[in-house]
Each structure stands twice: as structure tokens, then as C-alpha cells.
Amino acid sequence: MTDEHQRDQLITVLNWVTETFPNLTPRFAWNQPMFTDHGSFMVGFSVAKPHFNIALELVTLDQFRDQIEAAGDHCTKMLWQVKYDHPVNYDLLRLAIQYNLTTKQDITTFWRPKTN
Q: Please, which residues bridge with residue 40 across strands?
């Protein structure tokens, strides 16, 4: 897998997010592209050698973890990992982003408030 292919795949995903969720604000923070809504984090992306990461808050990742892994992707404690030679599950990504939009609509902070 070439770096060019990896870059192209990530650009395709970023463009998809922009087209699918035109109200999200793209930004670059912590050395990674991410998207926010009303100043609150919705999804972020980062690259690694064998895969790229989809960053979702733990609440969201836990909501979709079983579906992500059933679809053949891997989850760490905090990240959804998509191998570059594996197709992106756009339906599941749409559901995860929509989940954040719905559950964070009244949250005014960047991250969800911690619950005890």
C-alpha cells in the first residue's frame, strides 16, 4: 500500500463527511483533521501505518463497538481502526456521526461532560 493510496483514502473519507454533513465545521487540532458542530467535537481522523483511525468519544464508540467489529474493523479503547485495504463502512460512520449530532445537540462544551 502506497502512502499516496493511504492519503487518497483519507481524503475520500474527509470529503464524504463534508458532503454528507455539510453543517459540520472542519478544523485541524492535535495534528488531526476533525469536525465539530456548535463548537462540540463530532469526529476526528488520524493516520497510522497499517490503518487510519476514526476518533469518536468513548460513549459513541461503545454504542457502536459491536457493529464496528462485526463489520471487520478493529476498536481500541478510544479509536475505530480501518485498514487501508478494507472498505470504509460509510453507513456505520453516518450512524455514529448522527448519534453524536443527536446526543450532543444541547452540549456546549467541546467534549461531553464526564459522568460519574
A: 37
Residue 26 has, within 13 A of its CA and on its CB side, a CA count of 14
Alpha carbon 50 to its chain centroid, in Å, reads 17
DSSP letter, residue 23? T
The DSSP letter of residue 96 is H
Which of 115, 114, 112, 113 is CA-nearest to residue 57?
A: 112
The pTM (predicted TM-score) of the whole model is 0.92
Residue 32, C-alpha cell as written in the block: 488531526
Q: Is the confidence at residue 116, as pLDDT, over 80?
A: no
β-pair partners for 83: 51
For residue 57, the number of C-alpha atoms closer than 13 Å in the C-beta half-sphere is 19
Residues above pLDDT 70, as percent of the chain = 97
H or E segment at 52? Answer: strand 51-55
